[in-house]
Design goal:
Blueprint (H helix, E strand, L loop, with lengths): L18 H11 L5 E4 L6 H11 L7 E4 L18 H17 L4 E4 L5 H4 L8 H15 L12 H12 L5 H17 L7 H9 L9
Helix pairs in contact: 1-2, 5-7, 6-8, 7-8
The structure holds zinc ion.
The site of zinc ion (ZN) has 8 residues, from loops.
């Protein structure tokens, strides 16, 4: 008798596209940072949150899911936002307050998914492979004193100065970018934070997410 094997869908591969968001939850999962997922309805925020909770297994991180505006479609290329500017402003002020309250170190934009990316469902790296990298990064970072290993090279310092001066990143966000850069280096099992790690970390620091 032939038995049908039911394939359990992989929690990461079931999300079409969203490579940037998938990478962000991988980084945050190393120490279970609080995250905020900002995107329009149907972009995959809830699936990403589920995958994040699995990857962050020993931690119980706060996760904020939010629309970028009251109607949800601000910045979406496929549908126009119909919100009036004051309503958008109020919405984003509330969102900024929530981000502060939960001290979200990693802010992730989850844009509307293009049709061709939806067809990519079932491809991409499986959750188990990402989980393995996270476990190795945790082992690599174990035993390091809090705040240790966060020394930057000259390029890293220059990059932080640019972020502070030109992008107006607050001291809290700069410190958080350094913590996130440390985790990105840990994922590579690299004892030093390089400018490239910091450049990636800054992308998760909320620059431009509120478009202020
Ligand atoms: Zn809107």
């Amino acid at each position: 008798m032939k038995t049908e094997r039911t394939q359990i869908p992989d929690l990461l591969q079931i999300i079409g596209g969203q490579a940037h968001a998938k990478r962000a939850i991988e980084v945050a999962a190393v120490t279970g940072m609080s995250i905020v997922l900002i995107g329009p309805p149907g972009s995959g925020k809830t699936m990403l949150e589920a995958a994040y909770r699995v990857l962050a297994e020993p931690f119980t991180p706060d996760v904020v899911e939010a629309w970028p505006c009251p109607c949800g479609y601000l910045g979406d290329l496929s549908r126009a936002c119909r919100c009036r500017p004051p309503a958008v402003f109020r919405h984003q002020a509330r969102l900024a307050a929530a981000i502060e309250e939960y001290q979200c170190d990693v802010q992730i934009e989850v844009p509307a998914v293009a049709y061709r990316e939806l067809r990519a469902v079932g491809s991409g790296e499986p959750l188990a492979a990402v989980r393995l990298r996270i476990l190795r990064a945790r082992a690599f970072g174990e035993g390091r004193p809090a705040g240790g290993g966060e020394e930057l090279d000259l390029d890293g310092h220059r990059l932080l100065e640019v972020c502070e001066d030109r992008l107006g990143l607050s001291a809290r966000r700069l410190a958080s970018a350094k913590r996130v850069a440390r985790l990105i280096a840990d994922l590579e099992e690299n004892p030093r934070i390089r400018a490239a790690h910091l450049a990636e970390a800054v992308q998760y620091s909320g620059i431009g997410e509120l478009r202020r």
